[in-house]
Every structure is written in structure tokens, then in C-alpha cells.
Amino acid sequence: MVVVMLSWIYYFMLCGMIGIGIEKLLAKALKRKWQFQIIDYLVTGIVGITIYAAFASIVYKVGMIVHLLLLLLAIISGWGCRKEIREVIPKTKKLIFSWEGFFFFCFILLIAFFTSRGKFHTDTGIYHAQNIRLYEEYGIIKGMANMQLHYGYNSLYLAFAAVLSMAWLLPWSLHTTTGFVEVILCLYALHHLKTFKERKSHLEDAGCVAILFYALINVTGSMSPATDYPTMFLSIYMISVWLRAIEERAHYSVYALLSVFAVFLGTMKLSAISMVLVVIYPAFFLLKEKKWKDIGIYLGMGIFTLAPYLIRNVILSGWLIYPFEAIDLFNVEWKVPLEYLLVDAYQIKVWGRCLFDVGLIDMPITEWLPIWWENQERYAKMFLGSNVLGIILAMFNLGYKWIKKIEIRVELIVLYLAMLASALVWFLLAPFIRYGLGFLLVIPLVGMASWFDYEKKGFQSIATGCLVFCLFLCLSPYVDHYVTDDGVFVKQRLMDPYYIVQKDYDHSTTDIIESKGNIIYYSSNIKEEGEINSYHNFPSTCYQFMMRRSELVSEDIKDGIVPK
After folding, report:
1. Which of 223-237, 329-343, 354-368, 530-544 has the lowest mean pLDDT?
2. N or C: which terminus of the chain has fewer CB atoms within 10 Å of its end residue's CB?
């Protein structure tokens, strides 16, 4: 726990200095003055560091040199923004030395407890940890997806995790970034909700409550550098800031920045890419007012954000977006064969539908939907029902405002459409609840928050009040289930010896394959140990057959891996 908290202090300073520098540069370039909160600087820093590490990985390993250069950039940024930092410090001090600050410290201790021990996410054992090791050792290797198809998924979050792992300095690789993202967003949510009674509008509160709910549900995975967690946390944060902008009647430039952030979310995990639809709102005003320079800047930021993701995709798998066969632009020697890609894509879909057989990929929705529904737990079914009720409530609210000629905020409608599109894509492609949990939490909560924003009378009051009550009942079992899980986790892990140093990555039993003088490890005891592709053996694959159908280009693994 001690090492976890020390790493968070370092990340806080690093992300804060990078973020405040980026925000200052944007303000100058766009000639605008924005009012940012500390959390906004930190999240901007996370984005900047991630993109920096992803670009760096294309040409060099993400180790000591890349980290020290990042530290130098942070120091330069901090010096250039010393005036802005001096303005933030008094507010931070006042908060720290208060009862609220004491509560926050206790909360940080709690999250540090979860981040120091426990069980890794299944996919961390399969490919997250090994991908981080790839960043640390080589940056990138051509055709790495041929060794194991999962390496083609290419979440840029793992670049962020790798550049802050400190493996070049410490005798172990830190994996505290998920807990860091969790703790700063939860502190933001708790701080905002403190003034709940003082506000008439509660739209941003919905996002804050969703952040806390998501943390409650997934806090036992805080130790794991799993790509789902930060993607959903930051997606909910983006929605919260969009709702804050609606409450403050912000300039469309704020929404334009959030649209660029939505592009970043897509590079962390494709399941969040539909949030890019929010660009409709700021694009309308930018085009209407012919802000060609601003349009160029925003487009440039979006392209710059997306570029390392696309470049890495091509290098890792030979495909622009993996595993998406519709865009087939390259014919490189290390390209993952189409038949392998399709099997991988089909597996994601059929596993999400609880079919577990790629031969059933063409089963119509009328047949797989009942199977999928029966495989959901009771509390999960009620949670999904809350989304249906949330959509009905939102339609009630919209219809009532239209009839009574109450102002309807277009920004809110655009956000709703993006959230619903994200939920629809999740449902049609891979309906594991954890893949779209962030959106599934926000949809009903935003409906409830918008219900508080206007006075209701008569039938509207009774009908919507009943909906809100039923919605609350549907959400309660889901939250209650994970409250129990978290309590059991704490009870079982109290005596674990991780109060100083964090638990290391799991080990696994491995055997070796030789390819042109190189040793490739593979998991040899999956039946008993599970699919653990150990961080400690590199390069490694969970699946021997995947490496058997591939080979190294030369004696130097950096030259790439190609299909036989």
C-alpha cells in the first residue's frame, strides 16, 4: 500500500504538470479562456502521457529514456505554468487540511488497499501484462499478433501503464495506474456531490454517482491494468463534463474539446468509439460560424490522437483496425491471415452472446437473445431493466418539455444519442455487461437527473415518479451484490502481506518453443492454472498452437513474426 500511494503522488504531479501545460497551449492556440478544475488537468495529463508513450513505442522501447524525457517535459511544463500552478496550490492545501481532506485520505487508503492485492482480471493474465512487457522491452514488434491474436487489440491505455510501470528502476513492474484513475475520479465525484443540495440542476451529479457506482462494482480489480476499467471510468468522466457544460451553458468550444477526448476513448478500447458521435453538436456551430482555423486545430488534435493507435495496429497485425475485416488496406508479410482474424472476431461476438461456438455466429437475434438472457444473473437482468426504464423516462421528460414548451437542450439530446449508440453497439457486437457497463450505468442515472430539472404536475408527476421508483428498485440489487462482494474481499485479504509493496504479477508454468535461435514461452498448464500468460516470461503466448502456425522473420525478433 505504501508503494501504491507513493506512486500515486508521483503520477499526480506528473499528470498535473503535463495536463496544465497542454491546456495552456490549447487556450493560446484557440484564443479562448476556459475554467478548468484540477481533475480536468489530471485527465488531460493522462491523455497527453498516453499519446506520448504510444508514439514513443513505435520507434523505441518505453523504458528509462522515454520516462526521463517525459519527466523533463513535465518539469518544463510546470515551470512554464508556474503562475497557474501557484493559483491551484492554495485551493489544494485548503482542501487537504480540512475534514473533507481527512475523509479523502481515508478513501485513498481504502482504494490503495484494493490496488495492492487481490486477483488479476482474466484478460490481464491472457494478454495485458504481456503487452505491457512488450512496451517495456521493445516498444513494438511487427506481426506480434501472429504469436497471439490478443496482441492485436492494441489498447493505448497499456502505453500509459507501461511508461509509468517504472520497471527500468524498480525490481518489479508497477501496476497502479488503474487505481490512480479510479481514485482521482472518485475524489472528483465525492467533492462535487458534497454540494448536491445547493444546486437546482443535477445533471453532472448523475455522472458523479455513476463513477462511484462503477468503482464500487469494480474496485476489486483496481490492481489490474485491465483496459475495460479506465476506458469506462474516463467515458463516464467525459459524460459528466459534458453534463457540467450543459449546466453552465458553456461555449461550444468545450464540447469540441470533449469530442477530441471521445476519439481518445476509442483508442483505449473500441467499445467506446461510438461516443465520437457527440462531435455533431460542436461541428454544427464551427461550420455555421466558419471557424476554419479552429476546425483545423480540432481536426489536427483528433488525427494526432488517433495516429499512434492506427500505426501500431498496422505494425502489430497488418490491419488498420483489428479485428475488423471491412477495412483491408495493407498487404504486408506479417499480416494476420483473414481466416484467423474472423475466428477471433467471431469468438468475441459468440462469447458475448453466451453461445461459445463460432459456428453459431450467424444465429439470428431472435434465437440467441433468449439464450443470452437466460445466462444473465437475476441482479444483472434487473440492472438491464433499469436501462429500459431509463430510456422510457427520458422519452417522458422530452415529450413533456415539448408539450409544455420548456427549453429542450440539444446538447443533452446529442449526448443521449451517443450513449444509446454505444449501448446498441455493445449489445449487437459483444453483450458482456462489463464491456459496456459505464454506459449502462449512466443511461438510467441521467434520466433520473433530468427528471429533477423541472416542475411536474398531475399525471406526469405520478407516471414519472413511479418510473423513478421502479428504476431505483432495479438498480439496487446490482449495487447490493457488489457491496457484498467487496466486503468479502476485504475480509479475505486483510492478512495478505502487501501493506508495503504491491502484489506482483501472477506466475505460470511454461514450456518453450525455439524459432530461429529464439526462445518463445507458452503456458503449459492451462487446465489447472487457467490462461495466464505470465509477465515474467517474455516473449510468451498462452496458446502453443498460435505460435506453431507462425515463425520469426530472422534471428532477431524485432524483425517481426509472420504466419507460416
Report:
1. 530-544
2. C
